[in-house]
Amino acid sequence: MNLKPHNLDSYQSPSIERQCPLCWAEKSKLFSQDKTREYFQCGQCSFIYVPSRYHLPSGEEKSRYDLHENHPNDPAYRTFLSKLFAPMVERLPKGASGIDFGAGPGPTLSLMFSESGFPMEIYDPFYADNREVLNRTYDFLTCSETMEHFFDPKKEWELFLKLVKKGGWIGIMTERLEREEDFSNWFYKNDDTHVGFYSTKTFRWLAGRYGLAVEFQGSSVALFRV
Q1: Which helix (H) or strand (E) segment is 160 a member of?
Q2: Which residues are CB-contacts of 217 (< 8 A; sequence separation ≥ 6)?
Q3: CATH code, domain carrying 174
Q4: Which label site among 72, 84, 85, 88 has the fewest CB atoms less than 10 Å from its CB?
Q5: The whole model's pTM is what?
């Protein structure tokens, strides 16, 4: 798809695209564009998002996920997930139970927790769509490399808060954009199933808005205390 060049300062998007899907403020402006998509940024929470007209149809989206080769017996994949697993385990009481939201076609993070004495349920709208597990509450929730795919992140985030007990933990892994000037060359935006991009500023806004404490680990992990 070829996009006509725009003057980022004067461009006026449709009102529906100016509403941030994370905080619902109507303060968004065109932030960047490339050969295939436009990216808007919210003036309230700093969330960067892809307008809905660029979202993939459900079937095409799933076909992309089907190509992921993530297996529970892959040591490299387990090492990757340990960026979230290790700091979460340090903060959990013995026997805490959780849910892995967005487990994908090869659930592994939940297995790592269960092997360590922290039983977990899994949920994934494509691969484990058992909505019964969304009617319970848990000591912790993990969401690894999934939040960047949410079309409606406000709804999903508020669901997380309903799923986790007071005093529990929400562990998020998604690459954070810390320097806005790096966005045009950022590898993370090039996956067309990635439609929402977070920064430390955005996560701090979420923590403040919902009365949470937040800690950061490396460039991709955020830990919220409910």
Answers
A1: helix 153-163
A2: 83, 84, 87, 223
A3: 3.40.50.150
A4: 72
A5: 0.90
Q: How many domains does the chain have?
A: 1
The 10s digit of each residue's pLDDT in 106-136 is: 899 999 999 999 999 999 999 999 999 999 9
pLDDT tens string 37-92: 999 999 999 999 999 999 999 898 888 887 777 778 889 999 999 999 999 999 99
Give residue-wise pLDDT tens across range 136-190.
999 999 999 999 999 999 999 999 999 999 999 999 999 999 999 999 999 999 9
Residue 42 in domain: yes
Q: Is residue 3 part of a domain?
A: no
In a domain, residue 5? The reply is no
Half-sphere exposure of 88 (CA within 13 A, CB side): 35
Record the tokens describing residue 40, joined without a space. 């808007």
Cα of first residue to Cα of last residue in the chain, in angstroms, is 42
Q: Which domain holds residue 146?
A: 15-225
Bridge pairing between strands 98-101 and 120-123: parallel
Residue 72 maps to a domain: yes
* Rounded Cα gap, residues 56 and 157, in angstroms: 21
Residues 6+ apart with CB under 8 A from 78: 72, 108, 112
